[in-house]
Fold these 2 entries.
Entry 1:
Amino acid sequence: MNTKFFTTISIVLLLAGCAGGTANPIFNSSVKKAYIYAPGEADTLGLPAKFSKATGEIRYCASGMVQLVQQRKNEALAGIAEACGGEDKYGIIDELQADATGKFMGVDVKCNGNAGRAIYFKCKGTKPKPTGYDK
């Protein structure tokens, strides 16, 4: 085998390793839908008291190019607005580091390293139907 073959294989393997990262727009994951808590579920999160008033959360990956991170955050905020019935129908409680996954071609993908973020929010007015279990 010649050097050109090994060089080509090395480059292909290197690119394949980089392809899964969120810096590559082709392999970039999208934000999942907002998760709406069942009554009392927010109290079971083990977070400070201010989170007990949360209607739900939405998670996204905050790694990769700045433009892509901002796009995912904007997609997350749009998801909150959709869940609450409009952009003026919610308030953000806080944003924390969290385990997060996104969707890529219908498959859940995990964020790289500590890049997962969760935005905790409270809907103003009518609370949407819970996503998870009922207590």
Note: The CA atoms of residues 13 and 38 lie 45 Å apart.
Entry 2:
Amino acid sequence: MTTADKKFSDCQKLCLPLKARTGRKRLREAEKALCDVYPFKVNGANIFIARTGRKGLYDVYISKNKIKRTGKTAAAVLIALAALVPAISGGAVLQRRMHKNEAASLAQKERERKKQEELKVRAEKEARLESLRKEYEEKESGRYEKIYPYIGRICSAMSGSATIETILIESDSFSVEVTARDAVNILSGFEKSGAFSQIQMNRASVSKGLETVTYSGSFSRMHAAPGASFSTDEKISFYTQGLEKMHSREKRMESIPLSKYIQGIREVLRRNGCREQYIQLRRNGLSAEVEFFILSSSRSILHFVSEIQDCDDNLIDIKQIRIRNSEEANRVQTTIRFDSGIELKQDDMHLAEYEEQKIPSSQIDSIFYKAPRKISAAKKPYTPHSPVHEQKSIPVRHNAGMKSLSYIGLTKAEGKTMVIAKDSGMGSIYTLPVSETETAGNFCMKTDGGYTARLWGEYYEVKK
């Protein structure tokens, strides 16, 4: 007797062929089989199935009461549950791991996105910084420095016995002609100073123990720049503020009427005892340059140069200055060219409507009428054979040391013949009346070789 027989001794037993492989399916298969062979209705809860040892045959026990399933059946259920729990736990772990990996991937992508964004912003800042730096340095290099400190630098390199004959400063370059006892000592003074660069001693001549030398070179300039410890943003701020100041100054210069600009310079000139001989306008691109030719003492012109650019925020730029010394204290000749920054607006002139009027020729003729000059009875008119003319004739002045002017041509003014001549060194043009005799003021006398001119007490050879 088997264990099942002992346990279910009060139950009816049938041997049935069952094909199902699992206990649950065999139980359902047994219920169906019992319907055909068992006369009573059977509930699966009252059936217990046991193996017989023969393939395909099972002992089916039918109880009147519900069978409590223990032992192997319960163990099988517990084993199934035990197997299911790790599976469920493993699934949960796997799911958590997948979520964690997905979150890590998203975080990595976000870090990469932020990094790319930072690199893009950094590259844009670097590009902007480079653009601002180039614009700033270009404007800084083209900016005019104040002239008076430049003159002071040159004088500081001179020895006590030196005399400046001519000085020319244009932008950051200079040329100075000096008479001194020791030209090499002055060259050494230039070389030792950190205020100059590219110093050359171009020409030296000796006369009566004095050397006349021309020195040329450039002024050293230091551009303001951001500190090495500045961040990119701080450097951008430095250049931006510097450019804003430059642009603001340019706009203020452009807003000044040209007439007011010139009048302001004239007032400072006259306040310092300087006398302008002429004013000339020049075009530099779209803006105007104003050139003054001035006679004064050396102290007066230096006071003027200092005052005209005295304040830090001044709007006066001196592009070029040339000062020529003179034996007459109040006859120092200075040519100054100002870069006004003011636009010349010749194209802005508007023509008003004009109605043509018929004017009779007699009225026009009266405009060209000039009354003849009255001749005093005490003074006879000049004739070619007049003995007075022979007594006042002037011998030709000519010597090897005479300075020269370049002959340009002749013109007429107020019935007088005028010689137009140019001082190539100063860049000045003069119109001098032709005279047969020496007279007061400036004039020209005809000679066999051309003309001899007297200009502010100094004689010049006018070369054709």
Note: Confidence is low (pLDDT under 50) at residues 347-356, 362-371, 375-400.
